[in-house]
Design goal:
alpha/beta, six-stranded mixed β-sheet, five-stranded mixed β-sheet
């Protein structure tokens, strides 16, 4: 698209590639659940829908049978309808208790919820382990950055990656929304039969918010790392849930805000 650039006191005209953003309606058994803004290409809409429903505590990974996708015209968005196996049912009362007339923007994962009580979802603390070498963590940002293909073109996307304790990258996803990127990664893991992710590391390219830590907790991820800062609620939830929370992760070091026992300190 056309762009006007200001550099060192000079103005120039040119063009730029901008990250796309379109609405996706998430449905469960044909019933609307939420509308979220997401990156359409690649959309990974099925992964996003499954990850969203898992992260909101509405369904579990083993209940999902298939996802039907439908795209409308350009910029009009699409629909991802998650279908459960016969005899399976979503969490009781999710419609009434959670007030699912929800509009989730690309930057907020909890918009539309009625109270802070509705934000906190019941989940068991994660199990102890695994232990991770500090050098493994400091390698993760470069490993995630190396597969951010759309970010290289636009500079406008977040990313989330799932790694094993040795730092081997398993899944990486991008989106205009941090929460969407996490949902996509966890959704892909669910589709691959990897959930619960009890021996994995989740890395996010931005900050670690409460919603991201909660999504990780519901998928049993023990270690959450971010290249930026965590929030106070994220730190509290990680501590309460036996999770390890790492912030300001860089090549030269990082901060640990909870669960330091998983870091193999020399």
């Amino acid at each position: 698209m056309p762009v006007l650039r200001f550099r060192d006191g000079r103005v120039s005209r040119g063009s730029d590639v901008v990250a796309g953003e379109e609405p996706l309606e998430v449905r469960l058994e044909g019933e609307p659940v939420a509308v979220t803004m997401r990156t359409p290409t690649p959309g990974h809409d099925a992964e996003l829908a499954i990850g969203f429903l898992l992260g909101e505590g509405i369904v579990t990974a083993d209940q999902v049978a298939r996802v039907s996708e439908c795209r409308s015209g350009e910029a009009d968005g699409g629909v991802a309808d998650v279908r459960l196996w016969p005899g399976e049912h979503a969490a009781p009362g999710w419609q009434e208790d959670r007030q699912r007339s929800l509009y989730a923007t690309s930057s907020c994962g909890v918009c539309g919820k009625a109270s802070i009580d509705a934000v906190r979802l019941a989940a068991k603390p994660v199990a102890d382990g695994p232990a991770v070498e500090p050098e493994v963590l400091t390698r993760l940002p470069d490993a995630l950055r190396s597969v951010q293909r759309i970010f290289d073109r636009t500079g406008g996307l977040h990313a989330a990656g799932l790694f094993d304790p040795t730092g081997h990258k398993l899944i990486a996803r991008e989106d205009v929304g941090r929460h969407n990127a996490v949902d996509k990664a966890i959704g892909r893991a669910a589709m691959d039969g990897l959930v619960p992710l009890s021996s994995h590391i989740l890395l996010v390219s931005g900050r670690a918010s409460f919603e991201i830590v909660q999504k990780a907790l519901l998928a049993s991820v023990p270690i959450v790392a971010a290249v930026s800062a965590p929030s106070t609620l994220a730190t509290s939830l990680a501590g309460e849930s036996n999770m390890t929370l790492v912030g300001f992760l860089r090549e030269g070091g990082f901060n640990v805000y909870a669960g330091v026992e998983r870091i193999a300190v020399p």
